[in-house]
């Protein structure tokens, strides 16, 4: 039976939501699709290759909804970063899937990074620095999403008095609130390091 890769990816996403990343394998997907594992390995040579296709599927809607290129650059980054963070958290183990993805396969994540480089370059960063800054930005969003999806129960006491009091003072804030606060710090840092030779919005 011919294997339709988009259908296989949709089935893999369903398995992921049901049982999580650790139980998702190419062989298990083959069983779900009713095919022999070697036939599936032709399309997904390893579990990492399968995850790259999943990362592409997860991020694709984000890329389609990115703000226009002429959006003020800090606003663009805030909107894009929040959209990527939300999309990753919308899927069980989504952030872990995106970590270490091969952008030649996870092309949507690569396109997200490419658009980020373009926005930063247009904002005045030399291209070399724009790629570095985009890496900081994208890696922050991915890493923060991993932390947010695995964050412990914040009602539990921890043996560090200042942090414990601070967490009590923050009680009621949502992961989205905390992400926006942290993202604001990253954006402030990028703004502070932007070359001053170009005055852009």
From TrEMBL:
For this protein, the record's InterPro entries field holds: Homeodomain-like_sf, HTH-type_TetR-like_transc_reg, HTH_TetR, Repressor_TetR_C, Tet_transcr_reg_TetR, Tet_transcr_reg_TetR-rel_C_sf
DNA-binding region coordinates: 25-44
DNA-binding in keyword set: yes
Which SUPFAM superfamilies does this one have?
Homeodomain-like, Tetracyclin repressor-like, C-terminal domain
Q: This protein's superkingdom?
A: Bacteria
Span-the-membrane segments of this chain are none
Keyword field contains DNA-binding? yes
Give one Pfam family. Answer: TetR_C_1
Q: Which Gene3D superfamilies does this UniProt record tie to the protein?
A: Homeodomain-like, Tetracycline Repressor, domain 2
Which controlled-vocabulary keywords does the entry list? DNA-binding, Repressor, Transcription, Transcription regulation
Domain named HTH tetR-type: residues: 2-62
What protein does this entry describe?
Answer: TetR/AcrR family transcriptional regulator C-terminal domain-containing protein
> Native species of this protein?
Amycolatopsis rhabdoformis
Q: What is the lineage of its organism?
A: Bacteria, Bacillati, Actinomycetota, Actinomycetes, Pseudonocardiales
